[in-house]
Design a protein that fits this description.
Number of domains: 2
Strand order of the largest sheet: 1-2-3-6-7-8-9-10
Shape: elongated
Helix content: 10-25%
Strand content: over 45%
CATH class of the largest domain: Mainly Beta
Length: 181
């Protein structure tokens, strides 16, 4: 059956007028061009992203204003959908307000070639009970290699349960990309 189709198609092409041959050749060319227009973008999307993106898992070291111990260590995850999660050193002393913080959750967005804005929140705990909030606004600058970042304008607000700012810090943060599969 396949052999018959090939022979019939060959017979049709051989019996075609010169105009019909040109039309069929152009039609085949347009089909090929359309195929390339669909395939090339799909191939580009399918290629692995360069490591100059912020997406991934990071080791983070925080020099937290005047608060000991230095540095605070944490792990941060920047999701491809703009989500952000962090956890790490949770014990600290903020007299009267908190002795511990919960994990941080927030969002990030790219604002320049290697510049990103990040905002995240965490609960502050006093004797195991939620007693306030931590709010962080920061600008991250990704290194040329894409495997490290530092912060600029990293402002940390410590708030009571009514979100009234009681204290603030300006922190210095350094991140190093961790290898993941």
């Amino acid at each position: 059956m396949i052999k018959e189709r090939v022979e019939n198609r060959t017979t049709v092409i051989l019996n075609a007028t010169p105009l019909q041959r040109v039309i069929m050749t152009r039609k085949n060319g347009l089909i090929g061009l359309a195929f390339l227009c669909v395939t090339i973008p799909l191939m580009l999307v399918a290629q692995p992203a360069e490591k100059k993106a912020l997406v991934g898992v990071w080791e983070v070291k925080i020099s937290a204003g005047s608060r000991p111990p230095q540095p605070l260590l944490s792990i941060a995850i920047f999701g491809g959908d703009g989500s952000f999660t962090t956890t790490g050193n949770t014990k600290f002393s903020l007299t009267g307000l908190a002795d511990e913080r919960g994990p941080g959750y927030g969002r990030w967005a790219q604002t320049g070639d290697r510049e990103f804005k990040l905002t995240f929140y965490a609960v502050l705990l006093k004797d195991g009970e939620v007693n306030g909030y931590l709010q962080v606004h920061s600008t991250l600058i990704l290194s040329e290699s894409g495997n490290e970042f530092t912060t600029r304008d990293c402002k940390v607000d410590f708030m009571d349960a009514d979100r009234k700012v009681l204290d603030s810090d300006n922190d210095q943060v350094k991140g190093t990309r961790l290898e993941t599969p």
